[in-house]
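so my prof wants the structure for this chain in the tokens format not the other one, which i didnt know existed until like an hour ago. anyway here's the sequence
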Amino acid sequence: MRSTVNDVQTVRLFIAIDLPPDILKEIDRLVTDLKKKELFTGRYVLLEKIHLTLHFLGETRNDVMPKLDNLLSAIAVNKFTATLRTLDYIRRGPDIKIIYLSVIAPELHILAKKIQHALVDFREPEQRDFLPHITLARVKQVNDKDALVKYINEVSAVPLTFDISEFVLKESVFSPDGHIHTVLSRYNLW
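here's what i got, hopefully its the right format
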């Protein structure tokens, strides 16, 4: 659902890297194994929505879309590779809130920083460091915290390496069945 702010239509946007089929297959294996353990209740990210977020823009006015497209088109970064690493988690206070798969590639930091710098007029810069990761699940309640932490610490992805040759601008529209992500533009790396 698109929204209107002060009579100007807005869209909810984020910038991401879509993942190739072999990486999605490994993620599916990890998620399937994690689900079988029943260590927490929460919401798993659907495989077709899995991505690596580079920058979240949030509600963005439609009338700035051409400027946004020009800024993103001007970002110059060479193509690079990234490697899946280990499972990990993000806490809010003492509670585990997100389970994710870490991704290793120094160039991801460079790309994220260039995007953030280019978009300084659209959103306040992030105060926290960029963490290259793929969110697998959002945790509501942990059934056995020690067992969950132990499992996460013991599990690693197959260290698959994949090429990153583009990033995408996506719109996120809320629906009764969850958010629908649509690619609005693709930006090739060099």
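also thought this was worth mentioning. The chain has one domain: 3-188.
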